[in-house]
Amino acid sequence: MFDTLSGKLTGVLDRLRGRGRLDEADVAEALREVRLALLDADVALPVVRDFIAQVRERAATAEVMESVTPGQQVIKIVNDALVEALGGAGAVPLNLNAPAPIPMLVVGLQGSGKTTTAGKLALRLSRRDRRRVLLASLDTQRPAAQLQLAQLAQSAGVPSLPIVAGQTPVEIARRAMDTGRREGFDLVILDTAGRLSIDQPLMDEVKAIRAATEPVETLLVVDAMTGQDAVNTARAFNEALGVTGIVLTRMDGDARGGAALSMRAITGAPIKLTGTGERIDALADFHPERVASRILGLGDVVSLVEKAAETIDEEEAEELAAKMMKGRFTLDDYAKQLKQIGRMGSLSGILGMLPGIGKIKDQIENANLDTAILKRQAAIIGSMTRKERVTPDIIKASRKKRIAAGSGTSVQEVNKLLKQFDDLAGMMKRMSRLGQKGLMRHGIGALLPGRRQTWH
Fold first, then answer.
1. pLDDT for the residue numbered 418
2. Is pLDDT above 90 for 10?
C-alpha cells in the first residue's frame, strides 16, 4: 500500500535533504508537490488543506530555516503531520473492558470484506486474546451469507450461532446475545447485512440492531481500494451509528492510500485494524507511526520483527541456523526455509518494511516477487527423491525433466532453483570456514562468491 504516494513524497523530500540551506521558496515548492501527491493519492481535499497548512506553519519557523540540517527538520515535520493525520502515535486497541458477553457489531457495504473480517476477528480474539467468541450472522439479505460465516467460524475454530430460518436480523441478534449469556461466551460478534450502496433501509436495520444489543464496539469495514468512496461510506455510517473503530481491508492492494489518510479526520474514529491478505489470520493492528514511516521510505522494521516472531518456528529456525554455520545445508533445509518465509506473507510486502526499499521499488516489481514463486520452488523440491534432495549434484538432464513434469514447472525453473541453492550452499560453506570471529573481522563481503579468501 501507499506505493504511489511513497514514491512521490520520498522524491520531494530527498531533494530537500540534499540542500544545505532552505528558504521559503524551497519549502513552498516542496509543499506544492506534496499537496499534488496527496490529492493524486485520493486523500480528501479538507484533509490535504489541513495537512499542508500544518506543515507550512511548523516549517516556516526560524529554528527550522536556520538549522544545520533544515531538510531533515522538514522531513520530521512531514512525518509528524502524517502520524497525526493517521490517528496519532500508537495503535488503538479494541475495547474489551466490559461485562461479558461483549457485543461487537460489524457493519459495512456489501463486498467490503465484512463477513471475512468477522471471521478474522473471531480467530484473533480467540487465539491472541484467549476469549471465548461466538459468531452470529444477521445477514438475511444475501443468499448463503449465514452459511459463509458458519464456514469461516469453522476455519477460525470458534462456534457460530445455529441458523433458524425466518428470523429477522434483530431477532437473530437477541438470540445471539441470549446464547452468549447462557453459554458463558466472552464476546459475541454480530455480522450485519451489507448493501451495494448506502440506503435508508440498511441504516434503519443496523440502528435497530444497535438499539437491541448496545454494542461496545461498532466496527466499520471499508475497502481501501475504493478510495474516496470509502471515505464517503465511513462518513455516512458514522453519522448514523457513531462508529467506534474502522477496519480497512485490502490494505495490501491499494497503491494510493488516500482512504487511510482521510478516515480519522473525516469520521473522528480511529483505524483499529487492517486486512493484509486473504488468509484468515491476515488481520493486523494499525500503527500510524509505522505506516507514516513506510510512506516516507523509512521502513517498518518493528512490524517485520513482530511478523517474524509470530510466524517463524523458533526451534526450527535455530536448527537451520546451526546447520548453516556448519555448512551442512540440504534442499530439505531450503524447503523448510521457503515455508517459513511463505508464512510471513508476500515477499514484496516483507521487503516493503525495510528502510530505503522504495528507491528500488521498480526492480522489486520487475523481479515479480510473489509467494507463488515460493510454492513453485517447494513443489520442485517435493518432486525430488530423498537422495536428490541430499546430493543435488546427481540431478542431470533426465532427472530435471522428471522433476519438472512432477512439479508442473519447467526445466528452466528447476535449473534456476538449483543455481540459487548452489549459491546459498556456497555462502554457507564460506560462513562455516570463516567462523563467527572471522565473519566479524572480514564483514559480510567475505561471503560473496569470487571474493579472495585471506583467512586461515
1. 87
2. no
Helices (H), 18-112: 24-40, 45-59, 62-65, 70-86
The whole-angstrom separation of Cα 176 and Cα 195 is 22
For the chain, the structural domain boundaries read 3-86, 102-299, 305-447
**pLDDT of res. 314:** 57
Note the pLDDT tens digit of each residue in 253-308: 554 567 777 778 888 888 889 887 778 888 888 888 777 776 776 544 444 444 55
Question: What are the φ/ψ torsions at residue 419 (nearest 5 degrees)?
Answer: -65, -45
Query: What angle is formed at CA 231 by the lines to CA 229 and CA 237, rounded to 5 degrees?
Result: 100
CA dist 66 and 56 (Å) reads 15
Helix (H, G, I), strand (E, B) or coil at 219: strand
Instruction: Report the CATH number of the 305-447 domain.
Output: 1.10.260.30
- Cα–Cα distances (Å) from 361 to 120, 253, 262, 373, 420, in that order, read 30, 15, 25, 18, 22
The conformation of residue 50, written as its DSSP 8-state character, comes to H
Q: Enter the pTM of the model.
A: 0.63
Whether domain 3-86 has CATH 1.10.443.10: the reply is no
Count of other CB atoms within 10 angstroms of residue 383 = 17
Containing H/E element for 283? strand 283-285
What's the mean pLDDT when you consider all of the chain? 75
Strands 271-275, 217-223: pairing is unpaired
What's the whole-number mean pLDDT along residues 164-177? 90
pLDDT of residue 131: 92
**Options 3.40.640.10, 3.40.50.1580, 3.40.50.300, 3.40.50.720; which CATH number does 102-299 get?**
3.40.50.300
DSSP symbol at 395? -
Element (H, E) at 158: none
Are 105 and 215 in contact by the 8 Å Cβ rule? The answer is yes
Q: Number of helices (H) and strands (E), helices first, in the chain? A: 21, 7
Amino acid 417: pLDDT: 86
* Alpha helix positions (H), 327-390: 331-343, 347-351, 361-366, 371-382, 386-390
Query: Would you state the pLDDT for residue 321?
Result: 59
Judge whether 128 and 242 are in contact, CB under 8 Å.
no
